[in-house]
Each structure stands twice: as C-alpha cells, then as structure tokens.
Design a protein that fits this description.
- The complex is a heterotrimer of chains A (225), B (858) and C (371).
- Helices cover 36% and strands 25% of the residues of chain A.
- Chain A is an alpha/beta fold.
- Chain A is globular and about 45 Å long.
- The two termini of chain A are 21 Å apart.
- Chain B has 858 residues and is an alpha+beta fold.
- In chain B, helix 13 crosses helix 24 and helix 16 runs antiparallel to helix 17.
- Classes of the chains: A alpha/beta (225), B alpha+beta (858), C mainly beta (371).
C-alpha cells in the first residue's frame, strides 16, 4: 500500500513548537522504513497520525486511495482495524488476557471470520513467533522478548497492509532486541507488509530499507541503504 | 514524620485522590453514610433513654427507697399508716401518685401527672414556679380541687398561664384542670421534659378516681439503713408490696428496651460494614493500579513502613472526610431517627418524655472514631499488599492478578470455614437476651461468602465469557475475560456489591415476612366486631382504663352478644418486666380465636383453663423465660406467690415483653379488682357495628371519651402501628439501598477507570467507539448481575438469620418467611440499572480515550 | 404573741415562694371566729384544739439540769393553722382543713450548742393532728399529751431527743383583760391566751448523742385566735421569766414600722402565791444592752437586756446563755431567735436570779423586707 504525506503539520494546543512542520514523505508498498531522531522530534506523532489514532493540524495523508483527514471516525477505526497493526515499546499486551486471547483480539474486533477461523489464524501466528506452546500464559508470565513477540503476532494476525512500530526494541536487551527485530523484519517481508518503525537505535535502523532522520518536526534526510 | 513522608503524601496520595475525584467522593459518601446512620441511631437511642432516665431521676428526686406494688399497680394508702416506725428512724416518707393523662386538644400529647403531698414534697423533689400564681388567691390554692401547676413546655405548647383552664383526657373521660402556676424549668418542672402536671395528692386521687389509692411511697433513707429498713418494712407490709431503690425502675425500662436498642445499633453497624467494603475496594484497586509506581518508589529507596504509612494516611484522609461528613449528616438524620425510635418505644415499651436532640460529644467522638478506625482497618490489608510489592515491580506489570488466582483456593477454604462457623453460631442461644451469636453468624456469613468470591468468579466468569459471547458478541467475551483476568479487582468489587445488596435484601425479606405474618395473625385472631378503649389510650398504651359503670352500661346494650373486658397491666416475672392480662376467656372461647404455637384449636385450650388457676402465655414470654405448656409459673399476688399452670402458648406480635393471661375469675381470686383497659365486643348476628357504636356513645356520660373501632378499623390500626414501629427499619432499608448503589457505582467506576489503558490498547487494535462502549457496559452489567446474584444469596441467608435467630432471640416472635418477590425483582432491576448507569460515564470516557496518551502514560 | 406570724408567713412563703396577702371577700376563703372580749376559759376543756379559730399553738419551753450539773434549754411548739380554702378535698387523710407545724429546739448550755428542727404536716393518715376533746398533739413522732394533770412531751430527731413529764403545779394564768390578749387596736385583733408559767419537769433527753436524766421547770403557753395582726407590726420581742423567788413574768413588745412599740403590747406578772397582774406597755421598760449578729442569716438580734418595772421595783439583767439560738429556717426563709437566757437583778430591793426564754422575731432582713 502506497502512503503519501503532503505538507503535514501538527500543533498541539498546549505547545508552542510544532510537533510536525510541513512534512512531505511517501512510503512504497512492502517497504521497511526506519524513522530516527532524538526524543521529541515528532516520530511518535507521525506514526499515530499515519495510523489514524491522532489527527493532523494541516496537510494531507493518502493511504492507498484514501485521504485520512476526509475519513469519518468510524471509517478511520475500520481502516485501522483492518489495515494497520501496532507494535509498542512497552508491548502493551492486555494483562488480563492470555497470550492467545491477546493475539486473537484484533480478529475478534474485526468480526470478519468465525471462531474456528480466528483460532486457526491466531495459533498459526503464534507458531510463527514460536510461542504457540505458551498460548494460555498470561503476559506477566513471559519475558520481555516473548511479550514483544506476542505483540508482533497480534500486530500481524489480521494481515494488515501497514505495520507501525514505535521503538519495538527500546525496552529489550541487545540480544533479545536483535532477535525480535529479525523476526519482525522477516514476517514483514513474508507478508509484503509496509512497515514504519520509529527508533533511536542505529543498529535497529540498519536493518531497514530506508532511514528517515527527523529533528524538531522536520525531515533532515531520507536515505536509502 | 519526616519531610519525605509529607512530600510523598502530597504528591503520591493527595494528588491521586484529587485526580480520582469521583471515586474519592463516592468512597467518602459511603463511609459518611455508614457513620451517619450509626451516629443517628446511637444518638436517638441514647437521647430517648437519657431523657427517660433523667425524667425518672427528677421524679425520684432525693428518694433513695420506694415502696410500690409488685404488680406496678396502685395500692391502698393504708400502707402509709404502717410506716410510722420510719419517723423514729428519722426517715422521711411521702406518698406519690403517678398517672398519665393526654391533652384533649391537639397535639394529643402524653402528660405525666404527679400527685404529691404539696406540703411535704419539698424534702423530696425540688420545685419552683416560673410565674407567680394568680394573685387573688392565697398560697393554699394548690390544695383546691382541679388546681395544678403545669410544666413550662406544656404551658408554652398550649399557651397556658395562671388561671387558665386546660382540658385533659383521663381514662375514659375528659376533665378540666385549672392552671395555678407554671413550673420553672428545674426539678419537678423538668419531669417528662416539662410535659408535666403537678397536683396535690388528694386532688390527683379525685381527678383520677383512685379512691384511697397511691402509686408509690418515696423515702429518704440513708444508705447504711437501706437494707435494714427494707426488710423491716417488708415485715409489716402486705406481701404484694415491695421496697426497692428508685434506680431499679430505670434499670427495668432499660432491660425492656435493650433488645430493641441493641438490634437497632447492630443494624446501623451493617451500614458501616458496607462502608468498610467500599474502602477496601477503593484502596485495593488503587494499590493494584499503582503497583508500578509503588515499585518505583521502593526502588528509589522508600522504605516498606513508609509505604504502609502512606496508604494508611490515604485511608485516614478518606476516613476522616467521610466520618466528618457522616457526623454532620448524622446529626441531621438523628432528628428523624429520634422521632422513629421514640414512636416505637412509645407504642411498645414505655411512655417517653418528648425529647430534643442533645449534643452528646462522646457519641460524636465515638461515631467519628469508629468510622475512622474501621476505614483504617479496612485499608490495612491493601496497605500490607502495597508494602509487599518488591522494588523489581517497577519493571514488571500485572503480576498481582496472578497471585489472587493462586490464593483463590486457600481463600475458598477460609470462606468455607467461616461459613461453617456461621452455621455453628446460628444455633447458639442468646446471651442475656441479645442474639450475639446471631449477629456473629451474619458477619461470618458475609465474610465467608466474600472469601469464596474469587473461586466462584474464576469459574463463573469463564462460563459467562462463553455464554455471553453467544448472543452479545465478542465484546461480551472480552468483557468477561478481562474481568476474569483482573480477578483480584473483580472479586473485591463483586464482594462489596454483594454485601451492600445483601443488607438490602435481608432487611426487605425480614420486614416483608414480618408484615405478612402480622397480617395473617391479625386476620385470624382479631374476631371481635368492635374494640373499645379509653380515649387516653390513643396516645399512650399505658394511659387509662374504663370505668366500671361504663362497662356495665355497655353490657346492657341488647345488640351485644358478649363482651370481653380485658385488663392489662405491667408486672415483673423473675425480675423481668412483662404484662399480666386478665380476660373473660369463656367469651374468647366461644367467639374469639387465638393462634397457638402447637396448632391446637383456640377453644380447646381455653376450655381447659376455665375456672382454674391456669394461664396462657405469649410466645415471647415463653421464649424469654423458657416455659412450655404444662410448666408452672409462680405469680406475685397481694397475698404472696401463687402457682398457675401454663395451658398454652399463643402467638402475639403486639408486645415483645411478653404476656401472661389469666381467666378473669382466677384474677379476681388473687388480685384486687381493677378496671378494664380494653373491651372486645361481639355482636349478635345481623347487627350493624355502626349502630352499636352509636348506642355506646349514647350510653357514655357527657364527658366520656372513647375510641371505638370496628374490626376492619382495628386491623388497619394494627398495620399502621406496625409500619410506624418499623419506620426506622424502613429508613435503614432505604439507606441500605443507597449504600448498595453507591457501592455499585464506586466499584464499577473504579474498575473501568483503572482499565483505561487496556481500553486505549484495544482502540489501537481497531475497536470502534461502539465496541468500546459496549465492552464497558457489559462489564458493568456483569458485575452488577454477579453482585446482585451474590447479594440475593447472602441476603437470603442473612434474612434467615434475622428471622429465625436474631429476631426470635431478641423479641420472641415467630415470623413466617415470605419472600417479597415484587420488591426483590424491583430492586434487582434497580441495582442492575444503576450498574449500567455507573458504567455509562466510564464507557463514554473509554470511547473518547485519547489512546496515545493512555497507552504511553508510562 | 409568740411566733404566730412567723409560723404563718413561713408556711405561706414555703407554699408559694412569694408573699401573699389575705384579702377578704374571696369566696374560696373560709371565715373563722374572732377572739372577742368576754371569753370565759374553762379548764381542762380549753387545753384542747379550738378548730373554729384560725390559728392556735401550744408552746413549751423549759430549763433543764442534769444530775452531773449540766444545763439545757428546750423548746417544743405545736402550731395549728386552718387552711382558708373551701373547694379542697373534703374528707380523708388528704383533706386540707388544718396544717400543723412543730418546732423542736435544744440548747446545750455548757457546750454552747443549739439544735433545732421543724416539721410541717397535713393530717395524713397519722401524720399530724390536734385533738378537739383534750390536749393531744402530734406531728409525726413529736407528741404532747395531757393525762392526770401532767403533760407528756416527746420529740426526737437525729441525735437529739426529749422525753419529759411536766406537772401542772399551779393554775393556768390567763393573760390580757376580759379573756383576750389584745395585739392591736382593732376588734378581734387579739387572742385567747393562757400559760402554765411554772411546770416542774422530769425526764430524759439526748443532747447531741449523749443521754441525760434531767429535772427542771417548764413554761407552757396556749393561745388561739383568728386575726391578730396589722401590717404596721414588723416583729415582736417576747419574754418569759422565771425567778427563784417562785414568781414569773411575761412581757411582749410589738415593734412597729415607725420604730415604736404598739401600745397594745403588755405583760403579766405572776406572784409567788399565784396571783397575777396585767401590765400595760407604760408599766415596764426594756433596754437592749448587747447585740449578736447571726453568721447564717446576717440578722442582728438583741442578746442582753435590762428590764425595769418601777411599780414592782423590779430591775433585771437578762443575758442569752448561748448566743446562737437562732432558728434559722432552711426552707421557709423566715428565721427567728428563741433562746434560753439567765436572769439576775433585784426585786423589791432583794437580789433575785432565774432563767428566761426570749423570742425575737422580725430581725431577719428578709423577714423585714417581706413584711
């Protein structure tokens, strides 16, 4: 899915400085892009706006044919549910649900397939992140790396076209971080998912197809490896 | 305390409380209500009793010893002539007449009338006049017939001044007195809160037509001579008279009221108990939510005891706000509680002087302290949990929920143990007439079921998830699963709902059953066509009787088939107050119908008594004194004790002090004849009750005043009295509903607010607003339903305890269990609705949750 | 005069807490027979209670000596006062036709101690009464009765008691003139008044817990009337003097608001042979030579006197044996002084000595205000 950003600005009411300032950017289908920059440079804001969780102050975003700002809240939700997967720095698994239930949740929310189908797909996804054996564990019983693998499984389970990952390795040690990143990248490739990953880490960014550097809400450079 | 403590208190506790304003407020309200109810009832109880005691003390004055009839009746003044030996001992004594009259003008208030020897009484009681007497007369005017001093409150209520006349209902007549002067508000003038009339003893005898009879002889006897004098007097006086300390009267009344007051206090404590659950709920959810923060604080070097102190302080803050608010509102409630308590005591136990609330600091301190103490106590558990959080928790999340699941079986075992103990307690007898074990059983049942909640929820929530997913969709499944995942919080929430609802249910069932039982009883036992009592009895059950002449005249009315002239007066049996009744049991046998405990036919039992020294006793008497049919009682007559055989035990819901009923012939054999207090009139068939009522009025002297009720009117009256009696329980019931609803709202609000982050994540995962609203509402619904179900269950258990253990042991009444289905259904719906309502705000908030903020909040 | 007014006022004030005046013409009030000149005393019949008169009292005072030389004084006074209401209880013990007040006092001269007590009773079942046939008086357990020319007195309270037998050693002395002792100028403002001025007595007493056998002489007054006072009179001083020459003297002075004595004040001298002589106010002079102030009531009472009767060549010094013989009332708020005194001086040029009882009323401040 092609994503195009035109003159995107975001101004939070309570801040003077613009979080995003006249941004222009585009992502190709299947591309794996890392967005780098210091804290507060606007990475997360950009990701949230692309994912339809937050709204821009001005400018336009096209996801495929659709222009996001023209979409209703319901349409946005639907779009997010069907086309976008999320991965967070702090995993954000639902602590009250088991591993399996966490992974199955997006499918259930979408309500597009029956229970058997959901179970099949969720378990398949868990197989892919090698956690099928732990499907009835609660998140608190897992290690950090395992939790992030569950989060990846959850993000990918409904086969979204775009995956947004905000510092997915930020809370993991190097070894675990590498493993998770490797898995993430592999699965994105397999599924031809477009992936946008915000990160601090040069190592993490190095495995991306393209690195976009940001500072103070602007793009400094966009370099293809 | 260190500075750090206050910094932490401010940043970590106070801000948190302010941030969660709604929840803090609900919690504070819950505690406040508990404290308010307790305070109000205690204040009402003590005010009523203190006032009564104060009045008795004022009536006694300097009296240290009194001579009275064992039957509490009046007696022949000839006894005075046998007391002249006291003069040699330097002991003063004086006769007293104590009577009740009722103001003929509205408001028909009960007035204490004292007949004193106005020449000698100064030595016994202080009395002074606030207004000079009408100056025309000499100082001897108080000795003129119908002349009297009136208490100041009476004077102000009815606008009386010297020289005015004032109409009184005395027995079955209306009589006029002339106000000589108004008493100052001290000494005798404060008796019965100033609703008092003081006359010379001779004039009082004439006014009450109690020829040559007196109520008491008061003596001022030095302490060291009391034993000697008592025995010396009892030797020379008839055995029907007894010498006792005046304090005994107060003690007897206190005894009589004990059950009623203790039970009221116990019921009021239930509201506090529910308040405790609220606190526990709020605190534990707050602590669960802040585990990460607590872990961080610990990691930063804050000590365990400091954490403990911080949370205790949080409880202290909530508790003191709640208790303070409770004390204030309690003062407001107390006025109504006092009215209700007074009304009940008035109609069932003793004539209470009108009383106004008196600021009693000790009760305020007690209520405040108890509220605070229970709050902190309830917070101890959660605070201990907080201390146990290891510093490493800073890096982890959600481990607590697992712990409770592990603990569930152990908690369940504990719960079973408590329930077992509850069952044991339920079968224990009362201690000194108070169902201590009954209340213990109730508390054990509540805590036991609370401890069983986690294990029950563990399975039921899983089942619900499957079941609800079927027709409410995946949101329902998710809702149930989330609740299951947060089993700790869910358990606390459901348990506190359950406690609140169970209190409501149990009271509803108890009152409903009682009312139903009384209706049935009234329907079966009240058979007479007309009931007649002196007008003064309308205001006080202890005021007045019917003159012999009138009763005779009524007997002559030809439309009347039979009359049962019932005599009723208080006596003591084995030092416990009760009532003696004497009736024409042959009339009862033929026309009436009593319900006997063993199911025997009324006429059969009564026929056995005919002409014998046998009695029937009320159920409450039987239970209080452990008497059965066939047992022998020994009653005090004027000439000593005489034995009577118990021939039957009958149901009676009119009095919990108990009744012994003798046939009239036997009564006359052992006691002095006395006028009847009520008449049950049976008409010849085909005669109109209304017509006979008119003939009775016609037979009455011009100043005669009677209440005549038809069968239907009396039945209505009985229910009116019942509802009056239970007005305080109704109020408690209403409050229990409010507390239950507060509990529901607080718990749900807390739970949904605490899961905001999860909701944020779900939003990221693509949940629509509708889905999120639905999720939260279903969660609320599930909690409401589970709390309701549990509450119904526990409530049923509690109502069984109330009916079969607590009520029976306290009052000696058998109540037939009768479930008020309509009410239960309504309240179930109400609670369910409130649960949903409590979910609406969080649901809205959830739908509007700015996901990035909540999710990134850490 | 004795302390009739005192008793009455005490009673009324006790009952009402305020002074009350006896206005005529109120239908509720009963009428009583006035004490009019021409009354013929008949003894022993007149010892009884005369219920057609409003007030009446029997008044015993005396000087007692124990075998071990201790000296005592006593007072036992029975008052009857008719209650002037008509619509009260008519019969039975609670009727209010008369009320009875009794004062009992005992003076222990050596110990300088004074005991006094008051009883106020209605008839009751056995509480109080005065027989209308013979001298038989009772208020509770304080009694006086006459039998075979002897009077038997009995009273006890706490640690003081008397049980005495008094003999009528000579005929009663009738005071005043023509059967009346005038108290004020108006008609009927008088009483019928007689005394036994010397009654040898024997008996036993308990004085502050100690029992003594005693002998001595007593004085008995009996007076009855209906309306004896005017509002000008603020109090009176009364003296009963028994001299060792077997003569006695009774004097009273009615004090007026204007500081003078009422001209109706009078006295009676009883000679050793039993003959008597009426004394008008101008026949005797009483000078107060000393005062005593009560710490209880603040009243200042005379406590020593000089009495001169020139016609009889009597010149007597009278001194209170104990200063505090004040009957300070705790409830009537009316107090008076009535005490045993010693007498010395000369009569007809010969030295005489003796004992006296003196009554002083109207010195209490409150009493003055109230009157």
């Amino acid at each position: 899915m092609h994503i195009r950003i035109e003159n995107l600005s975001k101004q939070y009411e309570e801040h003077h400085v613009k979080a995003l300032n006249e941004l222009n950017l585009s992502f190709e289908k299947g591309e794996f892009v890392a967005i780098m920059g210091p804290s507060g440079c606007g990475k997360s804001t950009l990701l949230n706006i692309i994912a339809g969780i937050d709204r821009q102050s001005s400018g336009r975003i096209f996801i495929g044919e659709h222009e996001l700002s023209a979409m209703s809240e319901n349409a946005l939700t639907e779009m997010r549910r069907d086309n976008i997967g999320f991965i967070f720095q702090f995993f954000n698994l639902l602590s009250t649900l088991t591993v399996y239930e966490n992974v199955a949740l997006p499918l259930e929310l979408a309500a597009k397939c029956g229970a058997a189908e959901i179970k099949k797909r969720a378990m398949e996804m868990l197989e892919k992140v090698s956690l099928a054996a732990r499907h009835d564990f609660y998140p608190s019983q897992l290690s950090g790396g395992e939790m992030q693998r569950v989060a990846i499984a959850r993000a990918l389970v409904n086969n979204p076209q775009l995956i947004v990952a905000d510092e997915p390795t930020g809370n993991l040690d190097t070894e675990n971080g590498e493993q998770v990143l490797e898995l993430f990248r592999k699965l994105c490739r397999e599924g031809m998912h477009t992936a946008i990953m915000a990160t601090h880490s040069q190592e993490a960014a190095n495995c991306a197809d393209r690195i976009v550097r940001m500072k103070d809400g602007r793009i400094l450079e966009s370099s293809i490896k | 305390m260190s500075r750090v403590f206050f910094i932490l208190l401010h940043r970590f506790i106070l801000r948190e409380l302010l941030k969660n304003r709604v929840r803090s407020l609900l919690t504070v309200l819950g505690i406040a209500l508990g404290v308010a109810v307790m305070l109000a009832i205690n204040l009402a109880n003590t005010t009523a009793l203190n006032k009564f005691q104060e009045s008795l003390d004022l009536i006694s004055g300097k009296t240290t010893l009194s001579l009275k009839a064992r039957t509490d009746a009046d007696f022949d003044q000839a006894a005075l002539a046998r007391m002249s030996m006291l003069w040699e001992q330097g002991i003063k004594f004086t006769p007293v007449i104590e009577q009740l009259a009722v103001s003929a003008a509205a408001p028909h208030e009960v007035i204490q009338v004292l007949g004193l020897d106005m020449l000698a009484d100064r030595d016994f009681r202080s009395q002074s006049l606030s207004s000079a007497k009408s100056s025309d007369y000499s100082g001897f005017d108080i000795f003129r017939l119908r002349h009297a001093y009136v208490g100041s409150s009476l004077a102000s209520k009815y606008g009386l001044k010297s020289g005015d006349s004032f109409e009184l209902l005395i027995n079955d007549r209306q009589e006029k007195i002339i106000v000589q002067a108004v008493l100052a508000d001290e000494g005798v003038g404060r008796v019965f809160s100033g609703n008092v009339i003081v006359m010379d003893i001779g004039c009082a005898q004439e006014l009450f037509s109690m020829k040559e009879r007196i109520s008491r002889v008061d003596m001022i006897c030095p302490e060291e001579k009391i034993a000697y004098i008592s025995s010396a007097l009892e030797k020379v006086l008839p055995s029907g008279l007894v010498v006792e300390r005046p304090s005994r009267r107060g003690a007897q009344v206190e005894k009589m009221l004990r059950s009623f007051q203790y039970n009221l206090t116990a019921l009021s404590l239930i509201a506090l108990l529910v308040g405790m659950f609220l606190i526990y709920n709020t605190m534990s959810i707050g602590i669960i939510r802040r585990r990460w923060q607590i872990g961080t604080l610990r990691a930063l070097g804050v000590s365990g005891p400091m954490i403990f102190r911080l949370f205790c302080c949080e409880a202290l803050i909530l508790g003191s706000c709640g208790a303070a608010l409770g004390v204030l509102t309690g003062w407001g409630f107390a006025r109504y509680a006092l009215v209700a308590v007074s009304r009940t005591v008035q109609s069932h136990y003793a004539d209470l002087p009108p009383s106004e609330l008196v600021w009693q600091p000790q009760i305020f301190v007690l209520a405040f302290g108890l509220g605070l103490f229970l709050t902190v106590l309830a917070a101890m558990g959660p605070a201990q949990e907080a201390v146990a959080i290891p510093p490493a928790e800073a890096a982890r999340r959600a481990s607590y929920e697992m712990k409770i699941l592990g603990l569930a079986p152990r908690l369940a075992l504990l719960g079973l143990l408590l329930l077992f103990l509850s069952v044991l307690a339920a079968f224990q007898p009362a201690i000194a007439g108070f169902p201590f074990f009954g209340y213990a059983a109730a508390a054990l049942a509540v805590f036991g079921t609370a401890a069983l909640t986690p294990i029950c929820l563990d399975s039921s929530l899983k089942a619900l998830a499957r079941f609800l997913a079927g027709f409410l969709g995946m949101e329902a499944r998710l809702a149930a699963l989330s609740l299951h995942g947060a089993l700790g919080r869910t358990s606390v929430t459901v348990a506190s709902l359950m406690v609140g609802i169970s209190m409501m249910v149990s009271l509803a069932v108890m009152i409903g059953s009682f009312r139903h039982t009384v209706i049935t009883w009234v329907g079966q036992t009240l058979k007479a066509d007309l009931w007649l009592e002196p007008a003064s009895r309308a205001a006080s059950r202890r005021a007045g009787n019917l003159s012999y002449e009138l009763v005779e005249r009524i007997r002559q009315i030809k439309e009347i088939a039979a009359v049962d002239a019932f005599i009723e007066f208080p006596i003591e049996y084995e030092n416990e107050p009760c009532n003696l009744g004497a009736g024409e049991l042959d009339v009862m046998e033929k026309f009436g119908n009593l319900m006997f405990v063993n199911g025997e036919q009324s006429s059969k039992v009564l026929s056995r008594i005919r002409g014998k020294d046998s009695v029937i006793i009320s159920e409450s008497f039987a239970l209080k004194h452990h008497k059965r049919s066939g047992d022998t009682l020994f009653l005090d007559s004027l000439s000593g004790k005489f034995p009577v055989k118990v021939e039957g035990i009958y149901y009676d819901y009119a009095s919990d002090t108990g009744f012994i009923v003798l046939p009239r012939e036997s009564f006359l054999k052992h006691f002095e004849e006395r006028p009847a207090t009520t008449l049950a009139i049976f008409l010849k068939s085909g005669v109109s009750a209304e017509a006979v009522r008119q003939s009775i009025f016609a037979a009455m002297p011009a100043n005669g005043r009677l209440n005549i009720r038809t069968n239907k009117e009396l039945k209505e009256e009985v229910l009116r009295v019942f509802d009056n009696t239970f007005s305080i329980t109704y109020a408690l019931h209403a409050i229990s509903i409010v507390v239950a609803i507060l509990g529901v709202m607080n718990a749900l609000f807390a739970l949904t607010m605490e899961s905001r982050k999860d909701l944020g994540i779900i939003k990221y995962l693509g949940a629509s607003e509708l889905q999120m609203k639905k999720l939260v509402l279903i969660q609320a619904g599930i909690l409401g339903t589970l709390g309701n179900a549990g509450g119904l269950l526990v409530g049923s258990v509690l109502s069984l305890l109330l009916i079969h253990v607590i009520n029976k042991q306290s009052f000696g009444w058998t109540i037939q269990l009768d479930l008020p289905f309509d009410f239960l259904l309504e309240s179930f719906a109400l609670i369910f609705f409130c649960s949903l309502l409590a979910g609406v705000i969080p649901a809205r908030l959830a739908a509007k949750t700015p996901a990035p903020e909540v999710v990134r909040s850490e | 005069m004795r302390n009739f007014l005192c008793a009455l006022l005490a009673l009324i004030c006790f009952l009402s807490g305020a002074p009350a005046s006896f206005a005529d013409g109120i239908p509720a009030l009963k009428k009583y027979a006035p004490a009019l000149p021409g009354y013929k005393f008949r003894f022993p019949d007149d010892h009884r209670s005369h219920n057609n008169f409003k007030t009446e009292w029997w008044y015993y005072t005396g000087h007692l000596n124990s075998k071990d030389g201790k000296e005592f004084g006593f007072e036992l006074t029975f008052f009857r006062s008719a209650v002037p209401i008509q619509d009260g209880v008519k019969s039975g013990p609670w009727r209010m036709d008369n009320i009875y007040m009794t004062h009992f006092a005992l003076t222990d001269v050596q110990q300088k101690r004074f005991f006094h007590k008051e009883k106020l009773c209605r008839p009751g079942l056995t509480n109080a009464g005065a027989d209308q046939l013979e001298l038989n008086l009772r208020t509770e357990n304080w009694t006086a009765a006459r039998k075979d020319n002897a009077h038997y007195l009995s009273a006890s309270d706490g640690d003081c008691a008397i049980k005495l037998r008094l003999e009528e050693s000579r005929n009663p002395v009738i005071h005043g003139q023509n059967g009346v002792s005038q108290k004020a100028s108006c008609l009927g403002c008088a009483s019928h008044y007689y005394s036994f001025s010397r009654m040898p007595l024997k008996g036993e007493i308990i004085s502050f817990g100690k029992k003594y056998e005693v002998e001595g002489i007593a004085w008995m007054d009996h007076e009855f009337g209906s309306n004896q006072l005017t509002s000008e009179q603020i109090g009176w001083d009364w003296y009963s003097i028994q001299l060792n020459d077997n003569s006695e003297l009774m004097l009273y002075l009615m004090r007026l608001k204007n500081g003078k004595f009422d001209p109706n004040s009078s006295g009676t001298i009883v000679y050793a042979d039993g003959k008597t002589k009426h004394l008008n106010l101008n026949a005797y002079v009483v000078d107060t030579t000393s005062f005593w102030k009560s710490s209880k009531t603040g009243a200042v009472y005379p406590s020593a006197w000089r009495i001169k009767i020139d016609d009889e060549k009597i010149d007597l010094k009278i001194e209170a044996l104990v200063s505090d013989q004040e009957l300070a009332s705790d409830r009537s708020a009316i107090s008076y002084w009535e005490g045993s005194c010693k007498v010395s001086g000369s009569k007809q040029g010969k030295p005489v000595a003796g004992r006296a009882y003196v009554e002083l009323t109207g010195y209490d401040k409150e009493f003055k205000q109230k009157i």
